[in-house]
C-alpha cells in the first residue's frame, strides 16, 4: 500500500472511532429508549424539542454516543451509517410514516472539508419496517441540502445510498 493510502485508511478508521465515541461524556442521547418500552398511549405531550410529535411508534436505530446502539426518537445526534452523522437535529415532525428535522451533516465522504464545520441540511427519515416487533425508519433523504455542495451530496449518496442502520435481528 502506498503511504497516502495508508494515511487515508487510518484517517477513515479514526473518524469512525471518533463518531462512535462522540457524546459519550453525556449521560445519554436525548430520547434514548435503550431499555425502556414505549409509554402507554395517552394525551400527546409536547416534545422536548418542539413541534415534533412524540406519540409515533416508529424509532430510528442510533449508535451516536453509544456504539451498542439503541431505539431512539427525535435524537439530537444521529449516526445514520458508518459513513454519515447528523448533529444539532431539531425535529419538526415525527410520525408513523416519516420524520423531518433540520441539523448538520458530516461524514467520511467530506473529509477534511467538513470536519470542523458540518453542512446545514434538512433530513427526512422514512420507510418504516418491523425489526423484532418494533418499527424503525430504514432510509433518509435530504429534503433541503442547505450549504452542502452538490459534489459532496453526490459523495454522500454514493457512500451509504441513504440507508439507515438497523438493529441486528434476533432471528
What does this structure look like?
With 171 residues, this protein is α+β, with helices and mostly antiparallel strands. It has one domain (3-31, 49-160). Helix content is 18%, strand content 30%. The protein is built from two helices and nine strands, in the order αβββββββββα. The protein has helices spanning 3-21, 150-160, and strands at residues 58-62, 70-72, 78-79, 84-94, 98-107, 119-126, 129-131, 134-136, 139-144. A five-stranded antiparallel β-sheet has the order 3-4-5-6-9. The protein has a four-stranded mixed β-sheet with strand order 2-1-8-7, with no helix packed on it. β7 and β8 (134-136) form a beta hairpin. It is globular, with a radius of gyration of 16 Å.
The general outline is: globular
Task: Output the strand order for the largest sheet.
Answer: 3-4-5-6-9
- Rg (CA only): 16 Å
| Overall domain count | 1
| Percent of residues in helices | 10-25%
**Mean of all residue-level pLDDT scores:** 77
> Gap between N and C termini, in Å?
39 Å
Given as residue ranges, the uncertain stretches (5+ residues, pLDDT < 50) are 4-51
Question: TL;DR of this structure?
Answer:
This protein is α+β, with helices and mostly antiparallel strands.
Amino acid at each position: 500500500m502506498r503511504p497516502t493510502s495508508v494515511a487515508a485508511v487510518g484517517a477513515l478508521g479514526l473518524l469512525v472511532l471518533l463518531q462512535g465515541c462522540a457524546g459519550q461524556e453525556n449521560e445519554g442521547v436525548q430520547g434514548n429508549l435503550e431499555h425502556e418500552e414505549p409509554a402507554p398511549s395517552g394525551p400527546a405531550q409536547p416534545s422536548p424539542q418542539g413541534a415534533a410529535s412524540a406519540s409515533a411508534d416508529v424509532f430510528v436505530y442510533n449508535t451516536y454516543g453509544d456504539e451498542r446502539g439503541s431505539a431512539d426518537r427525535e435524537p439530537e445526534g444521529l449516526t445514520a451509517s458508518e459513513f454519515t452523522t447528523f448533529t444539532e437535529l431539531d425535529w419538526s415532525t415525527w410520525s408513523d410514516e416519516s420524520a423531518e428535522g433540520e441539523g448538520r451533516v458530516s461524514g467520511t465522504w467530506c473529509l477534511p472539508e467538513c470536519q470542523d464545520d458540518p453542512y446545514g441540511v434538512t433530513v427526512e427519515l422514512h420507510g418504516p419496517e418491523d425489526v423484532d416487533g418494533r418499527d424503525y425508519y430504514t432510509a433518509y433523504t435530504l429534503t433541503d441540502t442547505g450549504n452542502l455542495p452538490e459534489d459532496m451530496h453526490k459523495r454522500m449518496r454514493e457512500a451509504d445510498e441513504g440507508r439507515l442502520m438497523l438493529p441486528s435481528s434476533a432471528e
